[in-house]
Specification:
By secondary structure, the protein is an alpha/beta fold. It has two domains: 2-86 and 282-299, 3-Layer(aba) Sandwich (Rossmann fold), CATH 3.40.50.720; 89-274, Rossmann fold, CATH 3.40.50.720. Helix content is 28%, strand content 17%. The chain has helices at residues 13-22, 89-107, 110-118, 143-154, 177-186, 207-210, 235-243, 284-299, and strands at residues 2-7, 27-30, 40-46, 61-64, 83-84, 135-139, 158-163, 173-176, 190-193, 223-226, 249-252, 272-274. The strands form two sheets. It has a seven-stranded parallel β-sheet with strand order 8-7-6-9-10-11-12. The relative contact order is 0.14.
Length: 314
């Protein structure tokens, strides 16, 4: 029996090596190999070519290489088998590190101090709000968002979360659905976006939403951190909101087009921080271990964990 590694780009060999060590009793194949399609029982994918998973009659499950699964639904021929996403402490911790890094950077005004250092300007300034004075709102309270919210709260931020369906998280005030979105935004000084990309969330980070953020906070204006999906945001709206003062600072790990085109004005905007979609990089050993454990579950007759709802898209 075989595990197929189906990548749209990149080198599959590190993944092959990890899975060969973790699943020595099973053949590990890639889309470029010659193998028996009937032997493929499982597939791991990341932006696989559309239609490339349709030829395997004994396929039992498909695993997304990362936490996101929107790339799978680009394929109109995605097989009608269970789909599971990776939930792994390594991925979760890396994302929370990213969110905390940039929330603290916004709080402690590191961008302003870097500019003053470059200009060799010493400015006596005792204006420095504490974390408890700043309200962080996390959009998307799945595994990644919930962990980030808890850790933000631990270091003192006033944290709330919003999700499309109700969630209960100890110590975190939560909002849900369209009816509670405006109340959530109105109490948010730093907006952290960790939503999945679905038909409902595409373009949700737009000018009307951003103009609904708090206007009475201790920061100069609200700020945005998006480490979810690029197509959640309208980038022209982000730039317009930076220019008119709706937003003070923007941190982006994801973009509508990736790699971000060289002509994008986001590159040179003085209040935009860019990272190359690496907030939570998939480590081959950690991800392969999580998927291998899932395969062993199926072989023992146990149900898959972290399965995806096709209706919801996540």
């Amino acid at each position: 029996m075989s595990l197929l590694i189906a990548l749209g780009s990149g080198d599959p060999n590190p993944w092959v090596k990890q899975f060969q060590e973790l699943l020595p009793d099973r053949a590990i194949v890639t889309l470029g190999d010659v193998f028996d399609p009937a032997a493929v029982e499982f597939a791991m994918t990341w932006y696989h070519p559309p239609g490339s998973l349709a030829a395997y009659p004994n396929l039992k499950a498909v695993f997304s290489m990362g936490a996101g699964v929107d790339h799978l639904f680009r394929d109109p021929q995605i097989p009608d088998v269970p789909i599971a996403r990776v939930v792994d402490s390594d991925l979760t911790n890396r994302m929370s590190e990213y969110v905390l890094l940039h929330a603290l950077s916004i709080l402690r005004q590191t961008r302003r101090y870097r500019e003053q250092q470059a200009e060799k300007r010493w400015i006596d300034d005792d204006w420095q709000p504490a974390a408890c004075d700043v309200r962080v709102g996390v959009m998307g309270m799945g595994v990644l968002g919930s962990d980030a919210a808890r850790k933000l709260s631990l270091i003192g931020f006033d944290v709330a979360g919003w999700s499309q369906s109700p969630k209960a998280i100890d110590g975190i005030k939560t909002y849900a659905g369209e009816t509670e979105l405006m109340a959530f935004l109105a109490r948010t000084d730093i907006l952290v976006v960790l939503l999945p990309l679905t038909d409902e969330t595409r373009g949700i980070i737009n000018a009307p939403l951003l103009r609904s953020l708090a206007r009475d906070g201790r920061l100069p204006a609200p700020s945005l951190i998006n480490a979810g999906r690029g197509n959640l945001q309208i980038e022209s709206d982000l730039l317009a909101c930076l220019e008119d003062g709706t937003l003070h600072e923007v941190v982006l790990d994801v973009f509508q087009t990736e790699p971000l085109p060289v002509e994008s004005p986001l590159w040179s905007h003085p209040r935009v921080t860019i990272s190359p979609h690496n907030a939570s990089v998939s480590d081959p050993l950690a991800v392969a271990s999580a998927i291998a454990a899932q395969i062993r579950r199926v072989e023992r007759g146990e149900p898959l964990r972290h399965t995806v709802s096709r209706g919801k898209g996540y």
